[in-house]
C-alpha cells in the first residue's frame, strides 16, 4: 500500500425526513443562496421543505443549473452572490448542482479570471464560501468529496477541479428523495458509481487489501441492488443502499493509498462535451473498451475482479479476463445503457475531434501509470465503435 493521508470533513445526515435538520446545520444568521437544477425539486416539494427548514433566514434562489453545469450559468450565480452579499450556499439536487455550487463557492472570492480554476484544476483556490447540500440524485459522490466538473459551452471544454476548500460542510442524504426519479437517471447513477469504484480499484496491485475488499463489496452491492432500484419505484432499502454506495464510491476512502486510473472519465468527458451524451452513458461506452485495450497492464487486477466480483474461476486466464469484461458490458446493457459509439450514431470519423480535445486539454498522459497517451485513447475509442 502506498503512503497516504485521508481527510474528509463533510458531515453526513442520512435517512428519511432529514431535511428539517437544516435548521441546526445552517448558521442562524446566514444569508443563503439555494441552488438547484430544473423545476422537479420545486414540483416534488423538496424546495418547499428546504425553505421551511431554513425558517426566517434570508434566502434567495438560483435555478437552471444544467446536467453538465456550465461556466456561463454558474458565473451568473457568482454575480448574484456578490451583488447580494450572500454568505452561505445550499445545493439542492444531484452531482451537477453540487459540482456547480462548489465552483460558485470557489469563484466568488477568486481575484483572477474564474475559468483559471478549471485551467489549473483548482490548485490556485485559497478559500471558498461555506456550503452544504441536499442530495436528490445518487451518482457522483460530490456530496462528500472535494472534486467537481464544469463545462464551458463557448469552447466545448469539460474540465475537472479539486480543492480541500470545496468539501461540503454537510450533506443531507434522504433516500426517499429518489422515489420520483426516472429510471434513466437511476440507471445512470448506478453506472456512475460503479465506474468510480472501478477507476480506483482496477489498476495494479499494491497489497491494499482493505481498499480492495471495500471496493469489491461496493461493486457487488451495486450489481445486487441494480434490478431492485430500477424495478421497485418506492423500495426504500434498495434506494438507501444505492445512495450510500454512490457516496462511498467517491468520498476518497477506497482511493486512499492505491493507484487510480480516471482515463475512462477523461475520455468520457470529451464525449459529453462534443456530443452531449449523458456522463454515465459515456462511461458505459468507454470502460469495457478501455479494459480490453489495456488488459495486459491490468492483468492481475482483472483476474482478481473476475474471481471476487463475478465469481469467474473456470477457464484459462485469457478466458477469465474476457468473461469479466463481457460481464461488465452486459451489466451496463441490462441497465439500459448502450456500450458502443455506434449506438449514438458516432463512428470512426468522430474520433479525431475527440483526440484533439484531449490534447487541447493537456490530457495526454492518463491512467494509473501515465501511459495512456492519445494513441492509446484512439485505440480505446476504436474498440468502442
Walkthrough of the structure:
With 385 residues, the chain is of the alpha/beta class. Helices cover 47% and strands 11% of the residues. The chain has 15 helices and eight strands. It has helices at 22-25, 40-43, 46-54, 71-84, 95-107, 116-119, 183-201, 209-231, 236-249, 263-275, 279-293, 299-308, 317-334, 351-360, 374-383; strands spanning 11-14, 31-36, 58-62, 88-93, 131-135, 147-152, 157-162, 170-173. A hairpin with a 4-residue loop joins β6 (147-152) and β7. α10 (263-275) crosses α14 (351-360) and α12 packs across α13 (317-334). The chain is globular. The two termini are 36 Å apart. The relative contact order is 0.11.
Q: What class do helices, strands and sheet pairing give?
A: alpha/beta
What is the terminal-to-terminal distance?
36 Å
Q: Name the strands of the widest sheet in spatial order.
A: 1-8-5-4-2-3
Q: Radius of gyration, Cα only, in angstroms? A: 20 Å
Q: Which spans have pLDDT < 50 for at least 5 consecutive residues? A: none
Based on CA inertia axes, which overall geometry fits? globular
Secondary structure layout:
Elements: E1 11-14, H1 22-25, E2 31-36, H2 40-43, H3 46-54, E3 58-62, H4 71-84, E4 88-93, H5 95-107, H6 116-119, E5 131-135, E6 147-152, E7 157-162, E8 170-173, H7 183-201, H8 209-231, H9 236-249, H10 263-275, H11 279-293, H12 299-308, H13 317-334, H14 351-360, H15 374-383
Helix pairs in contact: 4-5, 7-8, 7-9, 7-11, 8-9, 10-11, 10-14, 11-13, 11-15, 12-13, 14-15
Amino acid at each position: 500500500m502506498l503512503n497516504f493521508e485521508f481527510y474528509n470533513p463533510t458531515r453526513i445526515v442520512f435517512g428519511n425526513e432529514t431535511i428539517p435538520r437544516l435548521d441546526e446545520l445552517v448558521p442562524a444568521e446566514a444569508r443563503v443562496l439555494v441552488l438547484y437544477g430544473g423545476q422537479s425539486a420545486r414540483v416534488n416539494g423538496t424546495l418547499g421543505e428546504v425553505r421551511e427548514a431554513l425558517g426566517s433566514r434570508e434566502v434567495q434562489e438560483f435555478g437552471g443549473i444544467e446536467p453538465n453545469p456550465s461556466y456561463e450559468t454558474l458565473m451568473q450565480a457568482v454575480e448574484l452572490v456578490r451583488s447580494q452579499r450572500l454568505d452561505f450556499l445550499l445545493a439542492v439536487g444531484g452531482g451537477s448542482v453540487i459540482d456547480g455550487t462548489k465552483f460558485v463557492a470557489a469563484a466568488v472570492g477568486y481575484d483572477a479570471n474564474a475559468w483559471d480554476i478549471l485551467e489549473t484544476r483548482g490548485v490556485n483556490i485559497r478559500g471558498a464560501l461555506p456550503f452544504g447540500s441536499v442530495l436528490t440524485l445518487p451518482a457522483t459522490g460530490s456530496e462528500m468529496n472535494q472534486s467537481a466538473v464544469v463545462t464551458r459551452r463557448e469552447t466545448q471544454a469539460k474540465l475537472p477541479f479539486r480543492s480541500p476548500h470545496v468539501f461540503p460542510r454537510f450533506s443531507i442524504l434522504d433516500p426517499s428523495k429518489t422515489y420520483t426519479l426516472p429510471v434513466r437517471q437511476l440507471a445512470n447513477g448506478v453506472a456512475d458509481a460503479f465506474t468510480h469504484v472501478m477507476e480506483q480499484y482496477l489498476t495494479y496491485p499494491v497489497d491494499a487489501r482493505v481498499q480492495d475488499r471495500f471496493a469489491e463489496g461496493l461493486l457487488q452491492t451495486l450489481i445486487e441492488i441494480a434490478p431492485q432500484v430500477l424495478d421497485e419505484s418506492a423500495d426504500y432499502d434498495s434506494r438507501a443502499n444505492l445512495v450510500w454506495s454512490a457516496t462511498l464510491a467517491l468520498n476518497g476512502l477506497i482511493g486512499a493509498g492505491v493507484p487510480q486510473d480516471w482515463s475512462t472519465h477523461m475520455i468520457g468527458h470529451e464525449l459529453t462535451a462534443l456530443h452531449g451524451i449523458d456522463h454515465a452513458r459515456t462511461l458505459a461506452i468507454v470502460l469495457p473498451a478501455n479494459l480490453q485495450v489495456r488488459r495486459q497492464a491490468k492483468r492481475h487486477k482483472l483476474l482478481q475482479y473476475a474471481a471476487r466480483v463475478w465469481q469467474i474461476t473456470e477457464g484459462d486466464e485469457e478466458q477469465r479476463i474476457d468473461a469479466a469484461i463481457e460481464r461488465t458490458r452486459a451489466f451496463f446493457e441490462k441497465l439500459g445503457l448502450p456500450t458502443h459509439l455506434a449506438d449514438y450514431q458516432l463512428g470512426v470519423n468522430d474520433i479525431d475531434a475527440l483526440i484533439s480535445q484531449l490534447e487541447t486539454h493537456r490530457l495526454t498522459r492518463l491512467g494509473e501509470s501515465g501511459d495512456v497517451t492519445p494513441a492509446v485513447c484512439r485505440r480505446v475509442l476504436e474498440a468502442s465503435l
